[in-house]
Write a structure and sequence with these properties.
Layout (H helix, E strand, L loop, with lengths): L5 E13 L20 E2 H8 L8 E8 L5 H9 L3 E6 L3 E7 L3 H6 L2 E6 L8 H4 L12 E7 L5 H10 L3 E6 L4 E6 L4 H5 L4 E6 L10 H5 L3 H4 L14 E6 L13 E3 L8 H10 L16 E6 L8 H8 L1 E6 L11 H12 L4 E5 L30 E6 L23 E4 L3 E5 L3 E5 L2 H22 L7 H10 L20 H10 L2 E7 L14 E9 L21 E2 L5 E2 L10 H5 L9
Parallel strand pairs: 11-13, 11-14, 12-13, 14-15, 15-16, 16-17
Antiparallel strand pairs: 1-20, 1-21, 2-6, 3-5, 3-6, 4-5, 7-9, 7-10, 8-9, 18-19, 22-23
Length: 587
């Protein structure tokens, strides 16, 4: 290694969850902006004793020191207390009458909150979004009732507020009603009402779950936080099988650089990345406002890809093609790493491949070491696994490690049965890691847009966005990183929060240098996720190890404790490869 070599260093962190306050517990409520406010149980009950509530029943959320056991629950039921629902952690929704408050203290109640009518409204209703409108001009809503609410009682409450009962399920304790929106808060005030929401949307094919699974919908049309990210101003490139379209979903946003056309695979990947849904909004891609460039796929990357970046400003590319299985660090890999090393704002995204169950010579059988490339094992690129809508990995999704033992893929995304664009304004169903990768590239386009909005239209480093997407991913499989899912399923909303809060540090580290960084983690944080990421210069294919640098991250807490990073064991053994990462250094 050159003695004066230095490189940028990124430490990215994301707060996962918070501890309960020492004084009052936090409330894990469906609407974080409108949730019950906890009060000290003694003070709450003392205040009630000075009010005339002798005959009233209050709907409350009560936090206990520990979960109630069967005997304690039975005691409360005998006192006339109704236990409606459990709310983590160790809290319960209850209907309580005046004579039982002291019994709650004896059972370990520490905090109590009134449940108000507005706490029962779904977020769309709470934030004023319109629900389906009936012919009468009124709107239709779904209302869930606590167990034991019979039809006579429900009908009486609805009639009181001039609401019409459309449908009722006694088993589910759910009714569909029609009423004026202004009456909802009065209906919600009834202590037997649990929750009110709009009706489900019209039935549609299971084709666009990727936007929801990746939480792209929370940054693309978030009325609550005024987030309208669509990738506008971000230029992306699909390297695939030729011309894309014609399709109105790319109208006035597509620049074609292809020659010939051998299929519709590129139409599928393009639509998932940035289709606009002009014919049908439900077919919208991840970044419907991004500008799309198209090129024919060339495995060696010795094409116009880099020129599109340097001359046209393209910052993201997607390639869902393979060039061998577990072939190691090739010249094509080197080209990719070099492009990303020389062009800090550029990022290449690749599919991991669909070759799981194929033994590609890693030494651990057909379930490991079958990434299909080549270019997709580049150190600086982003490689994507394929998961289904329920978050489980598709069995065909290729797995790491790379031939030299590095972790690939880095992240996972929905790629199974994704409906996307086809030629001539038609649509098709796509699948495999081919469909997962453009979902990640499109999501990255949203993060580029968010970063540019915050930094005077300056593009972010591609490695920064990659690291943020990795560190904010939802863990899948074994705890921590693994060779199947990488860091987990991408989460566009959490990644956006990390960009906005600038929850990262950019540093430069020289050869043999040790650097100490201070992180101010709030005292009430239960768990923090730290990621050390560094881009690297290209390696030589002559080496059996692609990594040039060997960095360690050690966390020292204020009490003298030491935390080591989660490390994967890349040895070709099916037991150790499947065991996941361990918080120790493995030789």
């Amino acid at each position: 290694m050159p003695s004066k070599f230095h490189f940028p260093l990124l430490l990215c962190f994301f707060i996962l969850s918070k501890l309960e306050s020492q004084q009052l517990p936090s409330v894990l409520w469906h609407n974080s902006s409108c949730k019950p406010v906890m009060h000290d149980a003694d003070a709450f009950i003392h205040a009630l004793s000075h009010r005339d509530v002798s005959n009233s029943i209050k709907l409350v959320l009560i936090h206990f020191r520990a979960e109630l056991n069967a005997e304690q629950k039975q005691k409360l039921l005998a006192l006339g207390v109704e236990i409606h629902a459990f709310v983590p952690h160790t809290s319960y929704i209850m209907s309580v009458n005046q004579g039982t408050w002291n019994s709650l203290l004896e059972l370990g109640a520490t905090a109590i909150a009134d449940i108000l009518p507005e706490h029962k409204l779904s977020e769309p209703i709470y934030y004023g979004e319109m629900c389906s409108e009936a012919v009468s001009g009124k709107s239709q809503f779904m209302v869930s009732w606590f167990a034991g609410s019979d039809l006579n009682y429900i009908s009486r409450i609805l009639a009181k507020h001039r609401a019409i009962l459309i449908k009722y399920s006694a088993i589910d304790q759910i009714s569909i009603i029609e009423c004026q929106r202004s009456e909802l808060i009065q209906i919600a005030a009834d202590t037997r009402v649990e929750f009110l929401s709009c009706l489900p949307g019209p039935a549609v094919p299971d084709d666009r779950e990727g936007r929801f699974l990746h939480r792209v919908n929370q940054v693309g049309a978030n009325v609550k936080e005024n987030l309208m990210l669509d990738g506008a101003g971000v230029k992306v490139c699909i390297r695939d099988d030729g011309m894309v379209g014609p399709h109105i979903d790319f109208q006035n946003r597509k620049i074609d650089g292809t020659f010939g056309n051998i299929g519709n695979h590129g139409d599928m990947t393009s639509g998932i990345a940035c289709g606009a849904g002009n014919i049908d909004p439900s077919y919208e891609g991840m970044a419907p406002g991004a500008t799309l460039y198209t090129l024919n796929y060339q495995a060696d990357f010795l094409d116009g890809t880099e020129a599109l970046h340097t001359e046209q400003g393209v910052v993201l590319t997607n390639t869902s093609y393979s060039d061998g299985c577990n072939v190691g660090y090739t010249l094509g890999t080197q080209v990719v790493d070099r492009q990303l090393w020389d062009n800090k704002e550029l990022m290449h995204v690749f599919s991991a491949g669909n070759s799981n169950n194929l033994d590609c010579g890693y030494g651990a059988g057909p379930q490991w070491g079958n990434i299909t490339g080549g270019h997709k094992i580049a150190k600086n690129a982003t490689t994507v696994a394929n998961i289904k809508f329920d978050g489980t990995v598709e069995v065909s999704s290729s797995r790491g490690p790379t031939k030299d033992g590095r972790m690939k893929p880095e992240v996972s995304a929905r790629g199974t049965d994704e409906l996307s664009t086809d030629e001539n304004n038609q649509y098709q169903v796509g699948g495999g890691t081919s469909a997962a990768a453009p979902g990640v590239m499109g999501t990255m386009a949203l993060l580029y847009q968010a970063y540019k909005q915050k930094h005077m239209e300056q593009n972010p480093p591609g490695g920064l966005i990659k690291a943020i997407l990795m560190n904010t991913a939802s863990d899948l499989g074994t705890p921590g990183p693994d060779y199947i899912h990488g860091m987990g399923m991408i989460d566009a909303y959490r990644a956006y929060q990390c960009v906005q809060a600038e929850s990262y540090q950019l540093q430069t580290l020289h050869q043999s240098e040790t650097k100490q960084l201070t992180l101010n983690i709030p005292a009430n944080v239960k768990k923090a996720k730290l990621l050390l990421y560094w881009p690297e210069s290209p390696s030589t294919p002559l080496s059996s190890r692609a990594l040039i640098n060997d960095l360690n991250l050690v966390l020292h807490d204020s009490r003298g404790g030491v935390v080591h990073p989660m490390v994967l064991d890349h040895r070709p053994n099916i037991i150790t490869l499947g065991a996941g990462a361990k918080p120790e250094l493995i030789p």
